[in-house]
Amino acid sequence: MTATPSRPADARRTRNPWARPTRAELDDTATPTGDTTHSRRTRVTSAAATLRTVRPLGWLLLACSLGVGVGAVLLGWAEFATAALVAALVVIQSALFLIGRTAYDIRIALNRSRVVAGERAYGSLTVTNPTARTLPPARLVLPVGPGRGAFDVPRMSAGETRDDLFSIPTTVRGTLAVGPVSVLRGDPLGLFERISHRDDAHTLYVHPVTVALTGLSLGRVRDLEGLATSDLSRDDVSFHALREYSPGDDLRHVHWRSSARVGELLVRQYEETRRSRFVVGLSTHPDDYSDPDEFELAVSIAASFGMHALADSRDLAVLMRERVLTDTSEGRLLDEFSLISLSPARGGGIDALAVRIAPHANQAALVVLVCGAQASPAVLQAACGRMPVGVRTLVVVADPEADSIRRRVGAADVVHVPTLEDLPRAVRRVLS
């Protein structure tokens, strides 16, 4: 009797193709839904990136090649077949220019990140080939704000470095994004173009034009604590006179030598002092200005006052409709002024801004309100009336169409400034 050889234990049995698969077999062959979705999205993204490399001229040539090829098949014309073949060869040869990686090492450097409107900023674009092979020619595109600059990079050998200098003209206040650099690889005919991004963007602040307000006193400190006023106080550091003692006076302020000589208690009377706090309010409501140039003049006026206050070591607060700037440096202050723009046409103008300024002006030595020529005298009077009693208020109206005018609105001074150069002379007549 012949024994049947036994089958190894790890050998698989022949599976019945009509049998229902087990749960273990399903788990081994099934792909998670999340992975499937991710793979599908990756394929769609790759396909979209590939289609973006074809430029409009490339699509036109592809359509013409396909149309002529179909015509050659339907009509049997050899000329059409030859034209379709030539067009297809041109497309294939142009696509070969995209092969290879653009492994450039690109760096952007600006000589300074802050300039005044009207000045030029300079920078350099350094391109290095970090690979051990020669890289083909490419084209670099450097976006600068709404515009862009183009640089042609020739064929670069291994380890070669190339520097290109560029300048950025600035005409208006604002911020400009310099970069990121895009590397363009394409064919000479312009059928295909592949774009890859490199260095991060840099921010260039274009500051408003300011003028020096030399010789102006913006609430100068005349004692150890602040600016002395005509209001009298029981406790301060600016001595005014002696008066008779009254119940509630602090005995620490009794002048004992004079009291002994007169025969009754005499206490020191002080002048109330205020800290040398300077408040600037800039209206950003479009109804207060007739055109953008008028608003730019107002921004330069407000920035000039702020810079002068910081130069004199004053406590400064700049208030606008959307933001409040306090305890800032000169560079940071001008950076903030670079970001200012007109607010949406809702809410109030300089009058509504004065409501926001009032809580910050209680201990201020001087409040300056800056607006455009469209603010009526009634609105200016209402804005000045919202300031705390005893706080000196100056209203500066940016009015390019008017001469330098000074007038009084209630207890406040109002000056109309046609140009930024007229600001020191116009304000000096008020604050000197």
Structure description:
- The protein has 432 residues and is α/β, with parallel strands linked by helices.
- It folds into four domains: 46-99; 105-207, Sandwich (Immunoglobulin-like), CATH 2.60.40.10; 227-274, no CATH class; 277-431, 3-Layer(aba) Sandwich (Rossmann fold).
- Helix content is 29%, strand content 29%.
- The protein has helices at residues 23-29, 33-52, 56-75, 78-95, 256-262, 292-311, 330-338, 350-357, 377-385, 423-431; strands at 105-110, 114-116, 120-128, 138-144, 147-153, 161-169, 174-178, 182-186, 193-197, 202-207, 227-233, 238-244, 266-274, 277-282, 315-319, 324-326, 364-372, 392-398, 405-409, 412-417.
- It has a seven-stranded mixed β-sheet with strand order 16-15-14-17-18-20-19, sandwiched between helices. Strands 5-4-8-9 form a four-stranded antiparallel β-sheet, with no helix packed on it. Strands 1-3-6 form a three-stranded antiparallel β-sheet, with no helix packed on it.
- Helix 8 packs parallel to helix 9.
- It is elongated.
